[in-house]
Every structure is written in structure tokens, then in C-alpha cells.
């Protein structure tokens, strides 16, 4: 009976290979686009948080307080509620609220504030002596940010990007609830609504393998960039 159940499960998965491949592609689109935009804009926001804080290059108490509270607010915002709240914005920018590209916008917004905090923490780990030495040599603030701060924090930044990508992979499953597609949407439609547990198990296995792959690549790159 167990053998028959296993064969039935395999047959179900094989019959769905086209949908699984499509869902996998949609997940890659969501995670790829959202990670890229979150890293770009999250890095900018994280640098602003750091340089406007006390005893830094461009100390600005009011701006830093505003940015700090904004990041805290957005990080505390439940992702499901954020998805619903951003439906009008997504429709206005993308032209639709359905599909992986539309879902990527919500994922990007959620991810960039999370990544900004990680960037700020990575920059705080850069020794102050390095910054002071660069400043004493006449380096401009932009040079200090790009060639000293971000360069010194690059190993930590790679680790943070790894954490971000894995987090967005998890969120992409919830994005299927608003028509984003992907593996999470497939698991809900077949595994939950049609009670096909083999589909859920198979998709969870794929997600676990993706997490292991992303983490492995991130750890390897971080070790190569770590100068300690």
C-alpha cells in the first residue's frame, strides 16, 4: 500500500511538471527582481541611516530620527497587510496586480527596509580608525562611503544579501495569495485546496534545496571577501 501511495504521488508530480517548472520560474523572477531592487535602495537607505547618525560623516539628528522610525515602522508592518495596502500602488506603477512582476514590487518594498537595517549594522562594524585615516588623507565623503565603508563591510554585506534573498523566497510563497504565482501559489492551489499533500511535500523540498543553495553560495562568497 505504501509503495502504491508513493507511486501515485510520483505520478501526480510528473503530471504537473509543466506547472511546477512555470511556478519555479515565477519564483525566480519574484526573488531575483525584489532582491535586486531591495539591495540597491536598501543600501542607499542604510548608508543614509549610518552617515546621519551621531558622530558620523553627515550627522543630522532630525533626518536620522525620521529614517530610523520609518524603517522600524515598515519592518513591523505585517507582510500580508502590506500586500493588500499596496494593491492600488502596484496597479498604478505596474499596470496590474497579478503576476510575478507585480508581486516583486511589494516584495521589494518589504525587503529594502529590512536590508537597510542590515546595511547600517554592517557599516557600524567598520573600525572608526579606518574612517578617520581616510578622512585625514583628504578623501571626500563619497569616496569614504564607496571605497572605505562599503568596501570594508563587503563580506558582511554579502551575508546580509544572502539572508535577504532567503527571506524574500519565503515571502514569495505568501505573494501567491494576491496572484503573484510561484511555488507557494502552486502549493496552496493543489496542496491546500485539493488536499494533495504530495504536492506540498515536493514544493517544500524544492524550497529547502533553494535555501541550502543560496546559503551555500552566500557563505562561500563571504569567506572569500572576508579579509580578517
From TrEMBL:
Superkingdom, taxonomy of origin: Bacteria
Transmembrane residue ranges: 28-51, 63-87, 93-115, 157-179, 199-218
A Pfam family the protein falls into: BPD_transp_1
Its membrane topology: Multi-pass membrane protein
Keyword flag Transmembrane: yes
Record-linked CDD domains: TM_PBP2 (cd06261)
Main location: membrane
This protein's UniProt keywords: Cell membrane, Membrane, Transmembrane, Transmembrane helix, Transport
Gene Ontology cellular component list: plasma membrane
Subcellular location: Cell membrane
Start and end residues of each ABC transmembrane type-1 domain: 24-218
InterPro entries for this protein: AA_ABC_Transporter_Permease (IPR051322), MetI-like (IPR000515), MetI-like_sf (IPR035906)
GO BP terms in the entry: D-methionine transmembrane transport
Keyword check for Membrane: yes
Record family assignment: Belongs to the binding-protein-dependent transport system permease family. CysTW subfamily.
Identification of the protein by name: Methionine import system permease protein MetP
Organism: Neisseria subflava
Gene, per the UniProt record: metP
Amino acid at each position: 500500500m505504501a509503495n502504491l501511495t508513493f507511486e501515485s504521488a510520483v505520478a501526480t508530480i510528473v503530471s504537473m511538471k509543466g506547472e511546477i517548472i512555470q511556478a519555479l520560474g515565477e519564483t525566480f523572477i519574484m526573488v531575483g527582481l525584489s532582491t535586486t531592487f531591495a539591495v540597491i535602495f536598501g543600501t542607499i537607505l542604510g548608508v543614509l541611516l549610518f552617515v546621519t547618525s551621531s558622530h558620523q560623516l553627515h550627522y543630522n539628528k532630525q533626518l536620522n530620527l525620521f529614517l530610523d522610525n520609518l524603517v522600524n515602522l515598515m519592518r513591523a508592518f505585517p507582510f500580508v497587510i502590506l500586500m493588500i495596502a499596496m494593491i492600488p500602488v502596484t496597479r498604478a506603477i505596474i499596470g496590474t496586480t497579478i503576476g510575478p512582476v507585480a508581486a516583486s514590487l511589494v516584495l521589494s518594498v518589504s525587503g529594502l527596509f529590512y536590508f537597510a537595517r542590515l546595511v547600517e549594522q554592517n557599516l557600524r562594524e567598520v573600525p572608526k580608525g579606518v574612517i578617520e585615516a581616510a578622512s585625514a588623507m583628504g578623501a571626500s565623503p563619497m569616496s569614504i562611503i564607496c571605497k572605505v565603508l562599503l568596501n570594508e563591510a563587503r563580506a558582511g554585506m554579502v551575508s546580509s544579501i544572502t539572508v535577504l534573498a532567503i527571506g524574500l523566497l519565503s515571502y514569495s510563497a505568501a505573494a501567491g495569495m494576491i496572484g503573484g504565482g510561484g511555488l507557494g501559489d502552486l502549493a496552496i492551489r493543489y496542496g491546500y485546496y485539493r488536499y494533495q499533500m504530495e504536492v506540498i511535500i515536493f514544493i517544500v523540498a524544492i524550497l529547502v534545496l533553494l535555501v541550502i543553495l543560496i546559503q551555500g553560495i552566500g557563505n562561500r562568497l563571504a569567506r572569500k571577501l572576508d579579509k580578517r
